[in-house]
Specification:
This protein is mostly beta strands. It is built from two helices and 30 strands.
Protein backbone atom coordinates (compact mmCIF):
# COMPACT_ATOMS: atom_id res chain seq x y z
CA UNK A 1 0.00 0.00 0.00
CA UNK A 2 1.14 3.59 -0.43
CA UNK A 3 3.12 5.04 2.42
CA UNK A 4 0.70 7.94 2.91
CA UNK A 5 0.56 9.46 6.34
CA UNK A 6 -3.18 9.20 6.66
CA UNK A 7 -5.27 8.12 9.59
CA UNK A 8 -6.79 5.35 7.46
CA UNK A 9 -3.53 3.81 6.45
CA UNK A 10 -2.12 3.93 9.94
CA UNK A 11 -5.10 1.95 11.23
CA UNK A 12 -4.67 -0.65 8.50
CA UNK A 13 -0.95 -0.93 9.03
CA UNK A 14 -1.28 -1.41 12.77
CA UNK A 15 -3.84 -4.17 12.37
CA UNK A 16 -1.89 -5.97 9.67
CA UNK A 17 1.35 -5.83 11.62
CA UNK A 18 -0.29 -7.02 14.81
CA UNK A 19 -1.97 -9.97 13.18
CA UNK A 20 0.89 -11.11 10.96
CA UNK A 21 3.88 -10.32 13.17
CA UNK A 22 2.63 -10.20 16.74
CA UNK A 23 5.73 -11.92 18.06
CA UNK A 24 7.95 -9.17 16.73
CA UNK A 25 5.87 -6.55 18.52
CA UNK A 26 6.04 -7.97 22.03
CA UNK A 27 8.48 -5.28 23.10
CA UNK A 28 6.25 -2.48 21.79
CA UNK A 29 3.00 -3.38 23.52
CA UNK A 30 2.94 -0.35 25.76
CA UNK A 31 2.41 1.87 22.70
CA UNK A 32 -0.74 0.00 21.72
CA UNK A 33 -2.00 -0.26 25.29
CA UNK A 34 -1.99 3.55 25.48
CA UNK A 35 -3.92 4.12 22.25
CA UNK A 36 -7.42 5.64 22.58
CA UNK A 37 -10.29 3.19 22.56
CA UNK A 38 -12.88 3.23 19.77
CA UNK A 39 -16.38 1.76 19.90
CA UNK A 40 -18.05 -0.26 17.14
CA UNK A 41 -21.53 0.10 15.66
CA UNK A 42 -23.33 -1.12 12.54
CA UNK A 43 -24.56 0.61 9.39
CA UNK A 44 -27.03 -0.56 6.75
CA UNK A 45 -26.59 -0.29 2.99
CA UNK A 46 -27.84 3.28 2.93
CA UNK A 47 -25.01 4.24 5.31
CA UNK A 48 -27.43 4.81 8.19
CA UNK A 49 -26.11 3.90 11.64
CA UNK A 50 -28.74 1.36 12.73
CA UNK A 51 -26.86 0.12 15.81
CA UNK A 52 -25.05 2.94 17.56
CA UNK A 53 -21.33 2.52 18.43
CA UNK A 54 -21.35 0.82 21.83
CA UNK A 55 -19.35 -2.39 21.48
CA UNK A 56 -15.69 -2.73 22.34
CA UNK A 57 -14.81 -5.12 19.53
CA UNK A 58 -16.06 -7.38 16.75
CA UNK A 59 -14.34 -9.97 14.60
CA UNK A 60 -12.25 -7.83 12.25
CA UNK A 61 -12.15 -8.13 8.49
CA UNK A 62 -8.37 -8.40 8.15
CA UNK A 63 -8.00 -10.54 5.02
CA UNK A 64 -9.73 -8.58 2.28
CA UNK A 65 -13.27 -9.83 2.76
CA UNK A 66 -12.28 -13.50 3.03
CA UNK A 67 -11.47 -16.06 5.69
CA UNK A 68 -7.98 -17.33 4.82
CA UNK A 69 -8.45 -20.98 5.80
CA UNK A 70 -11.76 -21.77 4.11
CA UNK A 71 -11.97 -19.35 1.15
CA UNK A 72 -15.36 -18.28 2.50
CA UNK A 73 -16.40 -14.67 2.38
CA UNK A 74 -16.13 -12.66 5.60
CA UNK A 75 -19.13 -12.40 7.93
CA UNK A 76 -19.87 -10.55 11.13
CA UNK A 77 -23.58 -11.32 11.13
CA UNK A 78 -24.26 -14.96 10.39
CA UNK A 79 -27.58 -16.72 10.88
CA UNK A 80 -28.91 -13.46 12.32
CA UNK A 81 -26.36 -13.15 15.13
CA UNK A 82 -23.03 -11.36 15.57
CA UNK A 83 -20.32 -11.89 18.18
CA UNK A 84 -19.32 -8.66 19.97
CA UNK A 85 -17.20 -7.75 22.96
CA UNK A 86 -18.20 -5.55 25.88
CA UNK A 87 -15.39 -4.95 28.35
CA UNK A 88 -13.37 -8.16 28.27
CA UNK A 89 -16.26 -10.51 27.53
CA UNK A 90 -17.94 -11.69 24.33
CA UNK A 91 -21.56 -12.50 23.57
CA UNK A 92 -23.99 -12.36 20.64
CA UNK A 93 -26.37 -9.61 19.49
CA UNK A 94 -29.25 -9.65 17.03
CA UNK A 95 -29.81 -7.07 14.29
CA UNK A 96 -31.44 -4.64 16.71
CA UNK A 97 -28.24 -4.55 18.77
CA UNK A 98 -29.78 -6.43 21.70
CA UNK A 99 -27.90 -9.26 23.38
CA UNK A 100 -29.50 -12.63 22.84
CA UNK A 101 -26.53 -14.48 24.36
CA UNK A 102 -24.96 -12.67 27.30
CA UNK A 103 -21.39 -11.35 27.07
CA UNK A 104 -19.72 -13.81 29.43
CA UNK A 105 -17.13 -15.60 27.30
CA UNK A 106 -13.46 -14.87 26.68
CA UNK A 107 -14.14 -15.18 22.95
CA UNK A 108 -16.95 -16.13 20.59
CA UNK A 109 -16.84 -17.18 16.95
CA UNK A 110 -19.16 -16.73 13.99
CA UNK A 111 -22.32 -18.85 14.01
CA UNK A 112 -22.33 -21.70 11.51
CA UNK A 113 -24.73 -24.61 11.12
CA UNK A 114 -26.71 -23.40 14.13
CA UNK A 115 -23.78 -23.35 16.56
CA UNK A 116 -21.23 -20.80 17.76
CA UNK A 117 -17.86 -21.72 19.23
CA UNK A 118 -17.14 -19.97 22.53
CA UNK A 119 -14.04 -19.96 24.70
CA UNK A 120 -13.76 -19.60 28.45
CA UNK A 121 -10.25 -19.85 29.82
CA UNK A 122 -8.37 -22.67 28.11
CA UNK A 123 -11.47 -24.56 26.92
CA UNK A 124 -13.95 -24.22 24.05
CA UNK A 125 -17.55 -25.31 23.71
CA UNK A 126 -20.54 -24.63 21.45
CA UNK A 127 -23.75 -22.71 22.08
CA UNK A 128 -27.00 -22.72 20.11
CA UNK A 129 -28.96 -19.59 19.23
CA UNK A 130 -30.70 -19.55 22.61
CA UNK A 131 -27.35 -19.47 24.38
CA UNK A 132 -27.62 -23.06 25.58
CA UNK A 133 -24.22 -24.73 25.87
CA UNK A 134 -24.99 -27.78 23.76
CA UNK A 135 -21.38 -28.99 23.69
CA UNK A 136 -19.63 -28.39 27.05
CA UNK A 137 -16.42 -26.40 27.51
CA UNK A 138 -14.24 -29.46 27.08
CA UNK A 139 -12.21 -28.85 23.93
CA UNK A 140 -8.74 -27.34 24.09
CA UNK A 141 -8.28 -23.74 22.97
CA UNK A 142 -5.12 -22.49 21.36
CA UNK A 143 -2.28 -21.76 23.72
CA UNK A 144 -2.36 -18.01 24.23
CA UNK A 145 0.86 -16.42 23.02
CA UNK A 146 2.19 -13.74 25.36
CA UNK A 147 3.66 -11.93 22.36
CA UNK A 148 0.16 -11.45 20.92
CA UNK A 149 -1.35 -10.30 24.21
CA UNK A 150 -1.91 -6.74 25.35
CA UNK A 151 -3.35 -5.22 28.51
CA UNK A 152 -5.52 -3.15 26.18
CA UNK A 153 -8.01 -5.72 24.80
CA UNK A 154 -8.38 -3.64 21.62
CA UNK A 155 -4.95 -4.94 20.64
CA UNK A 156 -5.17 -8.49 22.00
CA UNK A 157 -5.41 -10.45 18.78
CA UNK A 158 -5.48 -13.84 20.51
CA UNK A 159 -9.28 -13.46 20.43
CA UNK A 160 -9.41 -14.34 16.72
CA UNK A 161 -7.94 -17.79 17.27
CA UNK A 162 -11.32 -19.42 17.96
CA UNK A 163 -12.74 -18.64 14.53
CA UNK A 164 -11.55 -21.72 12.67
CA UNK A 165 -13.29 -24.02 15.18
CA UNK A 166 -16.69 -23.26 13.63
CA UNK A 167 -18.70 -26.13 12.13
CA UNK A 168 -18.39 -26.69 8.40
CA UNK A 169 -20.11 -29.51 6.49
CA UNK A 170 -21.10 -31.16 9.75
CA UNK A 171 -17.61 -31.26 11.27
CA UNK A 172 -15.50 -28.84 13.30
CA UNK A 173 -11.77 -28.59 13.91
CA UNK A 174 -10.98 -29.38 17.53
CA UNK A 175 -7.85 -29.67 19.65
CA UNK A 176 -6.73 -32.23 22.22
CA UNK A 177 -3.31 -32.50 23.84
CA UNK A 178 -1.81 -30.05 21.35
CA UNK A 179 -3.03 -31.91 18.24
CA UNK A 180 -6.02 -31.24 16.00
CA UNK A 181 -8.75 -33.43 14.54
CA UNK A 182 -12.47 -33.16 13.79
CA UNK A 183 -15.57 -33.58 15.92
CA UNK A 184 -19.18 -34.09 14.87
CA UNK A 185 -22.19 -32.30 16.35
CA UNK A 186 -22.28 -34.71 19.28
CA UNK A 187 -18.77 -33.64 20.26
CA UNK A 188 -17.25 -36.99 19.33
CA UNK A 189 -13.94 -37.10 17.47
CA UNK A 190 -14.70 -38.70 14.10
CA UNK A 191 -11.21 -37.92 12.80
CA UNK A 192 -8.74 -38.36 15.63
CA UNK A 193 -6.57 -35.40 16.74
CA UNK A 194 -3.27 -36.44 15.20
CA UNK A 195 -2.45 -33.36 13.11
CA UNK A 196 -0.24 -30.40 13.92
CA UNK A 197 -2.86 -28.20 12.28
CA UNK A 198 -6.21 -28.71 10.57
CA UNK A 199 -8.51 -26.48 8.53
CA UNK A 200 -12.31 -26.51 8.15
CA UNK A 201 -13.84 -28.68 5.45
CA UNK A 202 -14.67 -27.02 2.16
CA UNK A 203 -16.19 -28.97 -0.72
CA UNK A 204 -15.67 -32.23 1.14
CA UNK A 205 -11.93 -31.62 1.48
CA UNK A 206 -9.78 -30.28 4.34
CA UNK A 207 -6.14 -29.30 4.52
CA UNK A 208 -4.15 -30.77 7.42
CA UNK A 209 -0.51 -30.62 8.41
CA UNK A 210 1.55 -33.39 9.92
CA UNK A 211 5.15 -33.54 11.05
CA UNK A 212 7.46 -34.53 8.22
CA UNK A 213 9.46 -37.42 9.68
CA UNK A 214 12.40 -36.84 7.33
CA UNK A 215 12.64 -33.05 6.99
CA UNK A 216 11.12 -32.18 10.39
CA UNK A 217 8.76 -29.45 9.22
CA UNK A 218 5.00 -29.47 8.59
CA UNK A 219 3.84 -31.29 5.47
CA UNK A 220 0.40 -30.51 3.99
CA UNK A 221 -2.08 -33.23 3.14
CA UNK A 222 -5.66 -33.03 1.92
CA UNK A 223 -8.15 -35.45 3.45
CA UNK A 224 -11.77 -36.45 2.90
CA UNK A 225 -14.38 -36.60 5.66
CA UNK A 226 -13.25 -40.08 6.68
CA UNK A 227 -9.74 -38.76 7.31
CA UNK A 228 -8.31 -40.54 4.27
CA UNK A 229 -5.72 -38.66 2.15
CA UNK A 230 -7.11 -37.77 -1.26
CA UNK A 231 -3.89 -37.25 -3.21
CA UNK A 232 -0.40 -38.66 -2.76
CA UNK A 233 1.58 -36.26 -0.56
CA UNK A 234 4.45 -36.43 -3.06
CA UNK A 235 2.42 -34.12 -5.27
CA UNK A 236 3.15 -31.19 -2.89
CA UNK A 237 -0.37 -29.78 -2.98
CA UNK A 238 -0.64 -26.43 -1.25
CA UNK A 239 -4.28 -25.38 -1.70
CA UNK A 240 -7.67 -26.55 -2.94
CA UNK A 241 -10.87 -25.06 -4.34
CA UNK A 242 -13.56 -25.94 -6.89
CA UNK A 243 -12.41 -29.61 -6.79
CA UNK A 244 -9.01 -28.55 -8.12
CA UNK A 245 -5.71 -28.76 -6.28
CA UNK A 246 -2.89 -26.24 -6.59
CA UNK A 247 0.44 -28.07 -6.41
CA UNK A 248 4.17 -27.38 -6.75
CA UNK A 249 7.16 -29.35 -7.95
CA UNK A 250 8.57 -29.17 -4.42
CA UNK A 251 11.36 -26.76 -5.32
CA UNK A 252 12.13 -23.57 -3.40
CA UNK A 253 14.50 -21.89 -5.85
CA UNK A 254 14.30 -20.42 -9.35
CA UNK A 255 13.12 -23.77 -10.71
CA UNK A 256 9.94 -23.74 -8.60
CA UNK A 257 6.78 -24.27 -10.65
CA UNK A 258 3.09 -24.49 -9.83
CA UNK A 259 0.41 -26.50 -11.62
CA UNK A 260 -3.09 -27.89 -11.13
CA UNK A 261 -4.43 -31.37 -10.39
CA UNK A 262 -7.95 -32.76 -10.51
CA UNK A 263 -9.51 -34.75 -7.65
CA UNK A 264 -7.84 -37.93 -8.96
CA UNK A 265 -4.39 -36.40 -8.77
CA UNK A 266 -4.13 -36.04 -12.55
CA UNK A 267 -2.76 -32.93 -14.25
CA UNK A 268 -5.62 -30.60 -15.09
CA UNK A 269 -3.55 -29.10 -17.89
CA UNK A 270 0.06 -29.31 -19.02
CA UNK A 271 0.86 -25.65 -18.27
CA UNK A 272 3.10 -24.70 -15.34
CA UNK A 273 3.49 -21.28 -13.72
CA UNK A 274 5.96 -19.37 -11.56
CA UNK A 275 3.03 -18.25 -9.40
CA UNK A 276 -0.64 -19.20 -9.31
CA UNK A 277 -3.75 -18.97 -7.13
CA UNK A 278 -6.72 -21.24 -6.49
CA UNK A 279 -9.65 -21.51 -8.86
CA UNK A 280 -12.66 -19.42 -7.95
CA UNK A 281 -15.79 -19.17 -10.10
CA UNK A 282 -13.98 -21.19 -12.76
CA UNK A 283 -10.94 -18.91 -13.10
CA UNK A 284 -7.51 -18.72 -11.46
CA UNK A 285 -4.81 -16.05 -11.46
CA UNK A 286 -1.48 -17.23 -12.83
CA UNK A 287 1.86 -15.81 -13.96
CA UNK A 288 4.16 -17.49 -16.49
CA UNK A 289 7.32 -15.59 -15.55
CA UNK A 290 8.68 -13.19 -12.96
CA UNK A 291 9.12 -9.60 -14.02
CA UNK A 292 12.73 -8.52 -14.50
CA UNK A 293 12.08 -4.77 -14.27
CA UNK A 294 13.03 -2.39 -11.44
CA UNK A 295 10.10 -3.51 -9.26
CA UNK A 296 10.92 -7.19 -9.68
CA UNK A 297 8.18 -9.55 -8.49
CA UNK A 298 5.97 -6.59 -7.56
CA UNK A 299 5.59 -5.89 -11.27
CA UNK A 300 4.86 -9.49 -12.29
CA UNK A 301 1.98 -9.75 -14.76
CA UNK A 302 -0.91 -12.09 -13.94
CA UNK A 303 -3.73 -13.23 -16.14
CA UNK A 304 -6.65 -15.53 -15.39
CA UNK A 305 -6.84 -19.03 -16.83
CA UNK A 306 -9.74 -21.42 -17.27
CA UNK A 307 -9.54 -25.12 -16.41
CA UNK A 308 -7.85 -25.94 -19.72
CA UNK A 309 -4.94 -23.69 -18.77
CA UNK A 310 -5.83 -21.12 -21.43
CA UNK A 311 -5.66 -17.45 -20.51
CA UNK A 312 -9.08 -15.85 -20.80
CA UNK A 313 -7.92 -12.42 -19.60
CA UNK A 314 -4.81 -10.46 -20.64
CA UNK A 315 -1.62 -11.14 -18.71
CA UNK A 316 -1.25 -7.59 -17.46
CA UNK A 317 -2.58 -7.44 -13.91
CA UNK A 318 -0.77 -7.36 -10.59
CA UNK A 319 -1.91 -8.92 -7.33
CA UNK A 320 -0.46 -7.25 -4.27
CA UNK A 321 0.81 -9.75 -1.74
CA UNK A 322 -1.27 -12.84 -1.08
CA UNK A 323 -4.47 -10.90 -1.69
CA UNK A 324 -7.43 -13.28 -1.31
CA UNK A 325 -9.61 -10.67 -3.03
CA UNK A 326 -7.57 -11.36 -6.18
CA UNK A 327 -9.76 -14.45 -6.64
CA UNK A 328 -13.08 -13.96 -8.39
CA UNK A 329 -16.10 -13.34 -6.19
CA UNK A 330 -19.47 -12.30 -7.64
CA UNK A 331 -17.82 -11.99 -11.06
CA UNK A 332 -15.26 -9.47 -9.81
CA UNK A 333 -11.57 -9.68 -8.87
CA UNK A 334 -9.41 -7.09 -7.13
CA UNK A 335 -6.11 -6.40 -8.88
CA UNK A 336 -3.45 -3.78 -8.31
CA UNK A 337 -0.91 -1.45 -9.85
CA UNK A 338 2.52 -0.75 -8.36
CA UNK A 339 4.53 2.39 -9.02
CA UNK A 340 7.80 3.58 -7.54
CA UNK A 341 8.36 7.24 -6.70
CA UNK A 342 11.60 9.23 -6.86
CA UNK A 343 12.40 8.28 -3.26
CA UNK A 344 12.19 4.59 -4.09
CA UNK A 345 8.93 4.04 -2.23
CA UNK A 346 6.54 1.57 -3.82
CA UNK A 347 2.91 2.71 -4.09
CA UNK A 348 0.13 0.20 -4.65
CA UNK A 349 -3.39 1.10 -5.76
CA UNK A 350 -6.23 -1.37 -6.27
CA UNK A 351 -8.89 -1.64 -8.96
CA UNK A 352 -11.61 -4.06 -10.10
CA UNK A 353 -11.90 -6.23 -13.21
CA UNK A 354 -14.67 -8.43 -14.62
CA UNK A 355 -14.32 -12.00 -15.86
CA UNK A 356 -13.14 -10.86 -19.29
CA UNK A 357 -10.39 -8.73 -17.83
CA UNK A 358 -12.17 -5.45 -18.51
CA UNK A 359 -11.74 -2.65 -16.01
CA UNK A 360 -14.80 -2.10 -13.85
CA UNK A 361 -12.74 0.39 -11.85
CA UNK A 362 -9.17 1.35 -12.71
CA UNK A 363 -6.66 1.31 -9.81
CA UNK A 364 -7.66 4.07 -7.41
CA UNK A 365 -7.86 2.94 -3.78
CA UNK A 366 -5.20 1.89 -1.30
CA UNK A 367 -7.24 -1.21 -0.55
CA UNK A 368 -10.36 -2.94 -1.88
CA UNK A 369 -11.82 -6.09 -0.35
CA UNK A 370 -13.69 -8.85 -2.13
CA UNK A 371 -17.37 -8.30 -2.83
CA UNK A 372 -19.41 -9.42 0.17
CA UNK A 373 -23.18 -9.17 0.29
CA UNK A 374 -23.14 -7.17 -2.96
CA UNK A 375 -20.65 -4.46 -1.92
CA UNK A 376 -16.86 -4.15 -1.74
CA UNK A 377 -15.15 -2.30 1.10
CA UNK A 378 -12.48 0.24 0.18
CA UNK A 379 -10.35 2.68 2.15
CA UNK A 380 -10.06 6.30 1.09
CA UNK A 381 -8.29 9.20 2.76
CA UNK A 382 -11.58 10.34 4.29
CA UNK A 383 -12.81 7.03 5.65
CA UNK A 384 -14.21 3.63 4.73
CA UNK A 385 -16.38 3.51 1.62
CA UNK A 386 -18.38 0.76 -0.07
CA UNK A 387 -18.51 0.15 -3.81
CA UNK A 388 -21.34 -1.31 -5.90
CA UNK A 389 -20.78 -3.82 -8.70
CA UNK A 390 -19.85 -0.97 -11.06
CA UNK A 391 -17.23 0.45 -8.70
CA UNK A 392 -19.33 3.43 -7.63
CA UNK A 393 -19.17 4.71 -4.05
CA UNK A 394 -22.67 4.03 -2.77
CA UNK A 395 -21.93 4.16 0.97
CA UNK A 396 -19.51 6.68 2.43
CA UNK A 397 -18.43 6.79 6.06
CA UNK A 398 -15.89 8.70 8.09
CA UNK A 399 -14.94 5.55 9.95
CA UNK A 400 -11.20 4.80 10.02
CA UNK A 401 -12.03 1.09 9.79
CA UNK A 402 -15.13 -0.71 8.57
CA UNK A 403 -15.75 -4.40 7.96
CA UNK A 404 -17.36 -5.94 4.89
CA UNK A 405 -21.14 -6.24 4.75
CA UNK A 406 -22.93 -9.41 5.83
CA UNK A 407 -26.68 -9.94 6.03
CA UNK A 408 -27.27 -6.29 5.17
CA UNK A 409 -25.11 -4.75 7.91
CA UNK A 410 -21.45 -3.74 8.30
CA UNK A 411 -19.55 -3.13 11.52
CA UNK A 412 -17.77 0.24 11.57
CA UNK A 413 -15.42 1.80 14.10
CA UNK A 414 -16.44 5.23 15.38
CA UNK A 415 -14.45 8.12 13.93
Amino acid sequence: MPLKKTRIYKSMLLLAVLVCAAAALSGCKSMFEAMPHKKWGFIDKTGKMVIEPQFDDVLRDQYGGCFPYTHRLFKNFSEGLCAVRVGNKWGYIDKTGNFVIAAKYDNAGTFSEGLGCVRLGAKCGYVDKTGKLVLPLQFDAYEQSNSARSDNPDWDFTSSLVEKFGFSEGLAVSRKNGKEGYIDRSGKFVIEPTFLSASPFYGGVAKVESADAVRHYPSSTFIDKTGKPIIDTQEHCIDFSDKIFLATNGKFDATRKLYYLNAKGERLCKEEFVDARIFSEGLAAAAVKWADGPLGELDTAYGYIDQTGAFVTPQKFQISGNNLAGNFHSGRAIVSKTESDLMGNNHVTCGIIDRKGNWVLKPKYDHISAYCDGLARAFSENGTVYLDMNGNEVVKTKSPWGNSFSEGLAAVMEK
